[in-house]
């Protein structure tokens, strides 16, 4: 406890190395909280980074009681925010996939064609949700949110080459899953 208070004072006085020590002391605790909520190791790592950025920027507001609990609450809130964001993205994807059928040549498809298209949209949506999140997220950002490689790389915190690779692999996995169905 005294060590944390000492490190907090050091961080507030501008000593960056002290914050690294705070991170080292609490990273496993924070990671386990987040992983328990989001159930995705890679996402948990990203959220842990966001958590520690929030801890750093909010450190001046810390009231001096229960530092570990305070960090834990930030981790829980970041995880819940992520969960809500993912839910909104999935709902947006479903809406997008349901509206895909309206994109066409301006002719009203026959009822049978319309039913088949709706089934394909549901199947595509289900297959997309089964992909690992690192591929699904890239595909959603590229095809649904119309983000370019550079924008995706910045948002995801990865290189453009990694975006290209995951997009290629994600499309390949989606095609393979489609053929298996």
UniProtKB/TrEMBL annotation:
Keywords: Sigma factor, Transcription, Transcription regulation
Biological processes per GO annotation: DNA-templated transcription initiation
Protein name, as recorded: RNA polymerase sigma factor, sigma-70 family
SUPFAM superfamilies, alphabetized: Sigma2 domain of RNA polymerase sigma factors, Sigma3 and sigma4 domains of RNA polymerase sigma factors
Domain (RNA polymerase sigma factor 70 region 4 type) ranges: 122-174
Family the entry assigns: Belongs to the sigma-70 factor family. ECF subfamily.
Originating species: Anaerovirgula multivorans
UniProt keyword Transcription present: yes
NCBIfam families in the record: sigma70-ECF (TIGR02937)
Superkingdom classification of source: Bacteria
Domain RNA polymerase sigma-70 region: 23-88
GO molecular function: DNA binding; sigma factor activity
PANTHER family per UniProt: RNA POLYMERASE ECF-TYPE SIGMA FACTO, RNA POLYMERASE SIGMA FACTOR
InterPro entries for this protein: RNA_pol_sigma-70-like (IPR039425), RNA_pol_sigma-70_dom (IPR014284), RNA_pol_sigma70_r2 (IPR007627), RNA_pol_sigma70_r4_t2 (IPR013249), RNA_pol_sigma_r2 (IPR013325), RNA_pol_sigma_r3/r4-like (IPR013324), WH-like_DNA-bd_sf (IPR036388)
